[in-house]
Amino acid sequence: MSRNGYYGPYGGMFIPEILYPAFHELQATFTEIQQDAVFWQSYQESLANFSGRPTPLTYAARLTEYFGGPRIYLKREDLNHSGAHKLNNALGQAMLAKRMKKTRIIAETGAGQHGVATAIVAAKFGLHVTVYMGSEDIERQYANVFWMKRFGAEVIPVEAGSRTLKDAINEALRDWASNFETTHYVLGTASGPHPFPALVAFFQSIIGKEAREQILQLEGKLPKRVYACVGGGSNALGVFQAFMPDEAVELIGIEAGGEGPTTGKHAARLAYGQGRIGIAQGYKSFFLQNEDGQMVDTYSIAAGLDYTGVSPVLAHLAEQGRVRIEAATNEEVLQALQLVMVREGIVPALESAHAFAGAFREIQQCSQNDCVIINLSGRGDKDIFTIAEGLGDEGWKAFIQRKNTQYQHACSGDSGKA
Ligand SMILES: *Cc1c(COP(=O)(O)O)cnc(C)c1O
């Protein structure tokens, strides 16, 4: 990881002057903890006790049999507390906040997963917590808003712009500018201004550290390939970093192909060659933008991949050819998800199902003597409505109708049982 915050031409720290002290303090503390083995040790212990780490590396026997190719292993980030890799970063940054003697943390959230993880660690460490979320996203993802509030978070709706993730990030930065003496900003993915890409990748590196050790123990050799889905880039960098020096290990990131490359309805900033270099939200990278440089609305069946920018670290690794970036469409993703469920008894998150779809498509390229790792970034319980709709489940409509009726009865003071 670079020290000055640049990865080739990407990255940097494009922030208003008023935020300089906050970023300098954060950078200094980050440098400190990177050299402090005791910090990493207590981070690991905290995750072991609270989140069940290390997560297993599961041999997917029936998927392997189905394809008749390489042995397939799944890194089980879905088994983390709160169901995804996001807690690794939120917990690490809460410990960092404590070390900097902050009493409050703030976060942006899009789909709400990072907001929930941040609310959880705030409750665990006794910190005040405010989460910024676009009002459009609040409506789309209310279940997560509900959980954040129950964990004691203040959720502030953002009405600016398209009322989604990028607007929430701007609002969180504004809050930080006026409150950094008491407040740490827990950014949720490996993008944003320096040092966030490096900081988030640092905490998520625990995924790859474990996976590398586990595969060596189970197989006695390194995997031929490692697959991960790419939203902002944190779970991908989390699993990739440990394998980066092993040049024979191919690293493949899968972006959200949405409805496909010609539809404009996707979030593939790199794979479709449609993202353009720009500076937004404090960093330089590839963004999906129009001719005038305005960010365009992205679309994916997976809310967590639905973002206009991508980690500057990944942009650079892709350009260097160290990481290959592909995309999977919504349709491929639903098929892959269904296959994983019936062959392995596991529900991947729609985000993670992109990694499966990308891997399945080209799995025949590897031989039976190879093994591959797919990073299962999270579990799919949260996606129940979207999966049901995507797969066109009929019984589901009746179920929803019944719930609506019950709700209307409850609102009118009727028990609904008559
Ligand atoms: C948020 C999320 C992602 C995408 O974020 P990255 O920073 O790219 O990892 C992927 N999978 C799951 C389950 C998520 O919740």
TrEMBL record:
Residues of the Tryptophan synthase beta chain-like PALP domain? 52-377
Q: Which cofactors must be present for this protein to function?
A: pyridoxal 5'-phosphate
EC category name:
lyase
Substrates-to-products reaction catalysed: (1S,2R)-1-C-(indol-3-yl)glycerol 3-phosphate + L-serine = D-glyceraldehyde 3-phosphate + L-tryptophan + H2O
Annotated Gene Ontology MF terms? tryptophan synthase activity
Where N6-(pyridoxal phosphate)lysine occurs, residue numbers? 86
Identify the metabolic or biological route this protein is part of.
Amino-acid biosynthesis; L-tryptophan biosynthesis; L-tryptophan from chorismate: step 5/5
What is the purpose of this protein? The beta subunit is responsible for the synthesis of L-tryptophan from indole and L-serine.
Name this polypeptide is given: Tryptophan synthase beta chain
The species this protein was found in: Dictyobacter aurantiacus
Q: Which gene encodes it?
A: trpB_1
